[in-house]
Amino acid sequence: MHVITDTEFGHFQRFIYDAAGISLSPGKKALVSGRLAKRLQARQLQSFSEYFKLLKSGDAGEVQTAVDLLTTNETYFFREPKHFELLRELAQQHRGRGQPMRVWSAACSSGEEPYSIAMVLADVMGESGWELIGSDISTRVLERSRLGHYPLERTRHIPQGYLKRFCLRGIGEQDGTLLVERSLRAKVQFRQINLNEPLPNAQPFDVIFLRNVMIYFNAETKRQVVARLVAQLKPGGYFLIGHSESLNDISSAVLPVAPSIYRKP
After folding, report:
1. Rounded to an integer, what distance in angstroms lies between the CA atom of residue 124 and that of residue 177?
2. Considering the entire predicted model, what is its pTM?
3. Radius of gyration for the alpha carbons in the chain, expressed in angstroms and rounded
4. Among 68, 102, 136, 211, the one annotated catalytic
5. Which of 35, 154, 228, 263 is catalytic?
6. Number of Cβ atoms within 10 Å of the Cβ of 23
7. Cα(249)–Cα(142) distance, rounded to whole angstroms?
8. 3 state DSSP class of 65
9. Engineered SS bond to 134: which of 114, 115, 197, 225, CB 3.0-4.6 Å?
């Protein structure tokens, strides 16, 4: 069993801050140790210091693996239902406008959020008239997102009508799992995007979800990330954050409409 020292933990704090803008508190020491220990084993290394040297040597694949392990957070379908009620209203207003409604699920983790969004948009607007991007820094969770295959316990918040219409229940070896239906999966474009770097050029969005991510950033990183994202939002567009988060002292470019719901003037 490898034990991580305070000095070694400090190295990984700096590593993930430089790579992803994420600030790891001292309370995350056990998480870092637990998640990276398997890499020490896989690479036959004797200490966390040796693993850190490997990351600094320019092994791009290992750097991505470490980023994947240190950035993954748990999520579930239809988290924070008020956001999906708002999305439904906005989709109803957008129908028949000629321009597609564009939505971005930033930091989408393993895909539950973008598929929840896709179910609402498909229900209201049908198969056309909307575009949806899901992005994350972690290639590992994006691979899981594209599969759209989940344990049943992660899906308990999906409304019954959507379960029947958009999901397939596993049988036999796949018992206890659920697969998002193929045509809905095909509607979501998954991309690897680091929110801590300049964003790729894209058409502006009507709605951006950035939920339960900012808790990992310090104040300055929050300001930079929010400024980049809000710049991609159409005037009148909505910016949704987690219920435990706030944009007070972070951005004046969007105005609060309700708790965790902001709008760009």
Report:
1. 26
2. 0.88
3. 20
4. 136
5. 35
6. 16
7. 32
8. helix
9. 114
In a 3-state reduction of DSSP, which class is residue 72? coil
d(CA 189, CA 132): 6
Sequence letter at residue 178: L
Residue with tokens 């906005």: 90
pLDDT digits (tens, 9 = 90+) for 153-162: 889 999 999 9
Angstrom CA distances, 24 to 71, 134, 220, 222, stand at 10, 24, 15, 14
- Which of helix, strand or coil describes residue 37? helix
Q: Which pLDDT tens digit goes with each residue over 20-43?
A: 888 888 988 998 999 999 899 999
Phi, psi dihedral angles at 181 (to 5 degrees) = -60, 145
Q: Which residues of 197-210 are buried (b: 16+ CB within 10 A; e: fewer)?
A: eebeeeeebbbbbb
* Residue 248 in tokens: 């007070």
On whether the CB atoms of residues 248 and 111 are closer than 8 A, the answer is: no
| Contact present, 12 and 70 (Cβ < 8 Å) | yes
